[in-house]
Design brief:
It is a single chain. This protein is of the alpha/beta class. It has helices spanning 10-21, 33-40, 51-61, 97-109, 126-133, 155-160, 172-181, 197-228, 232-240, 261-274, 280-304, 330-340, 353-360, 394-400, 421-426, and strands at 2-6, 25-29, 64-67, 79-82, 114-118, 141-145, 165-168, 192-195, 311-315, 344-348, 365-366, 379-382, 411-414, 430-433. 40% of the residues lie in helices and 13% in strands. It has a six-stranded parallel beta sheet, sandwiched between helices. It has a six-stranded parallel beta sheet with strand order 11-10-9-12-13-14. A two-stranded parallel ribbon has the order 7-8.
């Protein structure tokens, strides 16, 4: 098929490249000429394992190209994919201006009957609104919903081996076209979930909010563990072995971040308000996530007896491993709080350092090497569980960190609970985890 993908961001790049690797001719369109120039030159603006090689291979084959205009023969595409951003507005509702702008462009350029596939995460009813927007088109265009479920850090694998492919379409012709499009992904079994557009739109919000709720609940439990002397590691094991609950998304930490969970939870809450149906659980998940960020800051302050004039080192700036995305990352929230209270911040991340430096400028020091971020710091806070951080040299940490003003040992704040407290203590350092009772540190294993 001949396909056009609107948006050279995270979703558009992965989806467009994946579709070209399945044998389709794909043009990825974006209004940012600088981004298009970089991509055309083989420079990928985001870090995602395996994506750059996939892009280069399909560019060489001629199946994948990047443009800031839609030339022939792509004005006669079989399908137009809308994969642009839908950032939250002041009230948390999704901003659909980029979606509608893409629809306007499609209405002007389409010269052949086609389907318009909305991959962007959008509120219920958006496909209907896009359909109305296409009324001025010269040819018949049918809008269908096909939300993305790509995890940053594993998106290429998610595209080619999806748990499910959700399709919301009204006509059998559109459903069959998407079955044909995704047929190469179904060789090992049926993955298509076929429904109507409004249900498809809501499936995406419901999925992300369900996962965010699990994370926020366990983070609330971690705060309760601190107050009661219980251990979140034991609680997680006891809860997760219940087959009705399962073990995934039960790890306490610094809170969720990224481009999906924060935005989608708030958008679902806004959608509920619009229809007079309060989304109490979604609202609580968001509130608990914000509280967890404040709680982490309080842990750091308590461990150091205040942060004014102290130097804090951070390991992990991206919101999760295997990405350079710092949107809504715990590191961003913590850094802002530390700087406001008079601390200085030195940090490291295998991939996200440049983005962090761009955001904070001279306000923080970003190091190329992980241990260099520790020099002269009073504490190290681990925020992202990159593999290279999992088995560190604690003796080297102790050598580089400095005691507190009161002469106390430097502290490691393990916001992901990946280190064994006994290893930290043996090296002459203090340990602080999330949801860990101080009286039980000596024999507590890591939780990952």
């Amino acid at each position: 098929m001949r396909l056009v993908v609107f948006g050279a961001g995270y979703v558009g790049l992965v989806s467009g490249t994946g579709l070209s690797d399945l044998g389709h001719d794909v043009l990825v369109f974006d209004i940012d000429p600088e981004k298009i120039a970089k991509l055309s030159d083989g420079r990928v603006p985001i870090y995602e394992p395996g994506l750059a090689d996939l892009i280069h291979r399909n560019q060489r084959s001629g199946r994948l190209q990047f443009r800031s205009a839609i030339p022939e023969p792509f004005d006669a595409a079989d399908a137009y994919f809308i994969a642009v951003g839908t950032p939250p507005g002041a009230d948390g509702a999704a901003d659909l201006s980029a979606v509608m702008a893409a629809a306007d462009t499609i209405a002007k350029v389409a010269s052949k009957q086609a389907i318009v596939v909305v991959k962007s995460t959008v509120p219920v009813g958006t496909c209907d609104a896009v359909q109305a927007r296409l009324a001025s088109a010269k040819v018949p265009l049918e809008v269908v919903s096909n939300p993305e479920f790509l995890k940053e850090g594993d998106a290429v694998n998610d595209f080619f081996k999806p748990d499910r492919v959700v399709v919301g379409a009204r006509s059998e012709e559109a459903r069959q076209m998407l079955r044909d499009l995704y047929a190469p992904l179904q060789l090992s079994g049926e993955r298509l979930v076929v429904t109507d557009p409004r249900s498809s739109e809501l499936i995406k919000y419901a999925s992300n909010t369900m996962l965010a709720v699990r994370i926020s609940f366990m983070n609330e439990m971690s705060r309760l563990c601190h107050a009661t002397g219980a251990d979140i590691h034991s609680v997680r094991l006891g809860v997760g072995t219940d087959s009705r609950i399962g073990k995934k998304f039960l790890y306490a930490g610094p809170g969720y971040g990224g481009s999906c969970f924060p935005k989608d939870v708030q958008a679902l809450s806004a959608l509920g308000r619009e229809h007079g149906i309060p989304m109490r659980i979604a609202e609580a998940a968001h509130g608990a996530n914000e509280e967890q960020a404040r709680f982490l800051g309080q842990l750091v302050e308590a461990a150091l007896g205040g942060v004014m004039g102290k130097k804090i080192a951070l390991w992990g700036l991206a919101f999760k491993p295997e990405t350079d995305d710092i949107r809504e990352s715990p590191a961003v929230k913590l850094t802002k709080g530390l700087l406001e209270k008079g601390a200085t911040v030195s940090c490291h991340d295998p991939e996200a350092g440049a983005n962090f430096a761009k955001l904070f400028g001279a306000g923080v020091t970003v190091k190329e090497r992980d241990y260099d971020a520790l020099d002269g710091a009073h504490a190290l806070v681990l925020l992202t569980e990159w593999r290279s951080y999992r088995a560190p040299n604690f003796a080297e940490m102790e050598r580089r960190l400095v005691p507190t003003d009161a002469g106390g040992a430097p502290v490691l704040v393990d916001a992901r609970n990946i280190w064994r407290p006994s290893d930290v203590i043996r090296a002459g350092l203090r340990y602080q985890g999330i949801g860990v009772a101080a009286s039980r540190l000596a024999d507590r294993p890591s939780q990952r």
